[in-house]
């Protein structure tokens, strides 16, 4: 009885603050609208200060007796030396993690023609698919440790694993060796570099959050340009092994910068591990639809990155020109990660995400599928990079918009863990479709375009749940 009274007392102690910030009925995901113009009130709709109910041993909804003070993201500095230093470190993290993943198409083509030339396209594609899958699948666990202990030890461990995996890949010659080194060890390390960078940003920015995410995500574009060119230019000169070692040393240097600069404004808050804290957010309709939309889009996102070089060469493009397709794609994605983020802060993050996903799906069906010469393939690479690049910067800001910042690590991790299964399956499915169509890429392109448009429709549904059907609403 005493524990129950204490719980009720804790709940009532926050009521006046909740009434002030959230209204008389604090509902975290209920969007507030302006009755005069119907616009989404971001000052209220994106702030999560109400205590979240948890489930007791008897299945009843209770409020924890010892709750940390509410964190109001509107008090974030939104700039300053420390904040922008964190952005620099996060940029380095994205360069070394997602930037490395963005050059998987180069390794797909190289392995098929060298170490693994006796294996089918679908079999070889399991290497980049496993790399992508593991990087994202570890999200909930890394997010949990981030919420409990902060980014420091996660980044240090990730740096060691990522560099070690790349160095071991330089010595690998067998399929299983490449899977273990590049597909598992390096990918696990990249995951530990990726999530802390993504999770610290909401603790430093509020009004400029999407723009800050865009600058951070531009690191993956920069890495996606530099790594493929490095690999393609260095292999003929110093061999595959030393090329991988040079990449490993570059990753090590940048991650030293990240380890020094990336930090969170929230103090570590150790808490017991409960599987329900990963599942519970899926009961929130906007969050669930956001996850599903991201899942569908992820089925399409890596198909051009992985197969564009091979498809271009089958249409007669020279290998010297084809090797620049991925750098072109990733170079354009630099602008796709920054400019939509800036626009999202002004007209709404869900609005911009829906537009960019639709644009990407239309590109695959209307430009890539009928392309039969060099010019349209190069144009597609640039435009696809711009369209798909927005996902990396906007997806975390969407989650932050509908989440309690104190739980951002777990909730971001849950999103990316679920969509990792799409990343795992998409490339092997693409390879199977190519084989089924006797070497033609039409089936792969249709699959990719439909999945991207399905993601756009689902994100649009989440936007409607948040703010209704008003076109001018900022969501």
Automatic annotation (TrEMBL):
GO terms, molecular function: transmembrane transporter activity
GO cellular component: membrane
Membrane-traversing stretches: 83-107, 127-146, 153-172, 178-198, 210-230, 242-266, 287-309, 352-371, 377-402, 414-437, 443-466
Keyword field contains Endoplasmic reticulum: no
Annotated segments matching region Disordered: 1-53
Annotated compartments: Membrane
UniProt membrane topology term: Multi-pass membrane protein
Domain of life: Eukaryota
Listed Low complexity bias regions: 1-16
CDD domains associated with the record: MFS_MCT_SLC16
Domain Major facilitator superfamily (MFS) profile: 286-475
Keywords: Membrane, Transmembrane, Transmembrane helix, Transport
Family: Belongs to the major facilitator superfamily. Monocarboxylate porter (TC 2.A.1.13) family.
Name of the protein: Monocarboxylate permease-like protein
Species annotation: Aureobasidium pullulans
């Amino acid at each position: 009885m005493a524990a129950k009274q204490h719980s009720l007392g804790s709940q009532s102690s926050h009521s006046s603050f909740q009434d002030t910030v959230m209204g008389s009925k604090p509902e975290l995901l209920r969007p507030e609208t302006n009755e005069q113009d119907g616009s989404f009130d971001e000052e209220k709709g994106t702030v999560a200060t109400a205590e979240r109910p948890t489930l007791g041993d008897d299945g009843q909804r209770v409020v924890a007796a010892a709750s940390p003070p509410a964190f109001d993201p509107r008090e974030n500095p939104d700039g300053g030396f420390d904040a922008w230093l964190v952005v620099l470190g996060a940029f380095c993290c994205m360069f070394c993690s997602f930037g490395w993943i963005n050059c998987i198409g180069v390794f797909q083509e190289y392995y098929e023609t060298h170490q693994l030339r006796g294996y089918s396209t679908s079999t070889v594609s399991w290497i980049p698919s496993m790399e992508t899958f593991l990087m994202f699948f570890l999200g909930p666990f890394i997010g949990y440790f981030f919420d409990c202990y902060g980014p420091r030890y996660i980044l240090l461990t990730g740096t060691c694993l990522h560099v070690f995996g790349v160095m071991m890949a330089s010595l690998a010659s067998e399929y299983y060796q490449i899977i273990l080194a590049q597909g598992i060890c390096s990918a696990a390390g990249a995951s530990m570099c990726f999530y802390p960078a993504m999770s610290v940003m909401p603790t430093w920015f509020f009004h400029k959050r999407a723009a800050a995410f865009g600058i951070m995500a531009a690191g993956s574009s920069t890495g996606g340009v530099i790594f493929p060119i490095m690999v393609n230019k260095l292999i003929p000169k110093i061999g595959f092994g030393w090329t991988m070692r040079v990449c490993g040393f570059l990753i090590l240097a940048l991650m030293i910068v990240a380890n020094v600069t990336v930090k969170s404004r929230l103090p570590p808050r150790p808490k017991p591990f409960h599987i329900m804290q990963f599942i519970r957010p899926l009961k929130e309709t906007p969050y669930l639809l956001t996850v599903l939309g991201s899942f569908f889009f992820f089925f399409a996102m890596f198909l051009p990155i992985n197969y564009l070089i091979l498809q271009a060469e089958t249409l007669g493009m020279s290998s010297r020109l084809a090797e620049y397709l991925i750098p072109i794609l990733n170079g354009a994605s630099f602008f796709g990660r920054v400019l939509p983020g800036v626009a999202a802060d002004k007209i709404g993050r869900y609005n911009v995400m829906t537009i960019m996903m639709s644009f990407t799906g239309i590109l695959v069906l209307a430009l890539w599928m009928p392309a039969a010469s060099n010019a349209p393939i190069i144009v597609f690479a640039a435009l696809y990079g711009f369209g798909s690049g927005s996902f990396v910067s906007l997806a975390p800001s969407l989650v932050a918009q509908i989440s309690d910042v104190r739980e951002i690590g777990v909730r971001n991790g849950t999103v990316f863990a679920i969509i990792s299964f799409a990343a795992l399956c998409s490339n092997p499915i693409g390879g199977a479709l190519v084989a089924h169509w006797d070497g033609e890429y039409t089936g792969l392109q249709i699959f990719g375009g439909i999945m991207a448009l399905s993601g756009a429709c689902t994100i649009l549904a989440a936007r409607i749940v948040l703010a209704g059907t008003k076109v001018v609403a900022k969501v």
